[in-house]
Design brief:
The protein is mainly alpha-helical and 103 residues long. It is 44% helix and 8% strand. It folds into two domains: 39 residues, no CATH class; 41 residues.
Length: 103
């Protein structure tokens, strides 16, 4: 049997059960036990590998906005309506809307 583990906890359970010989692939987050380092990585992170919280936060926000927009675009296709603008686009429009000038 050939198995791919998509959860680090499942990888560790397989190791505990002595089934690492059946394990052919793991996620980018699987790092225990050491033997799984030799298995194929079947996922990768969309977030840059850094310890700078500001970089991580910005990447998560950008990814969330992009995935949110993609979700609404796909739902709109299914429903037969034009896609809704992304939350980032709506926020941009609100914050950059022209205000009437005072006399």
């Amino acid at each position: 049997m050939r198995t791919v583990s998509l959860l680090p906890a499942a990888t560790e359970i397989m190791a505990f059960l002595g089934a690492t010989d059946h394990l052919v692939g793991v996620t980018h987050e699987c790092d225990y036990p050491e033997i799984v380092g030799s298995r194929a990585r079947v996922t990768k992170s969309s977030i840059p590998l850094t310890s700078d919280p500001a970089v991580i936060d910005a990447a998560v926000r950008e990814l969330h906005a992009r995935l949110h927009a993609d979700l609404y675009a796909n739902l709109a296709k299914v429903r037969g309506r034009p896609p809704r603008p992304s939350s980032a686009a709506r926020t941009h429009a609100r914050t950059h809307a022209t205000q009437p000038s005072a006399p």
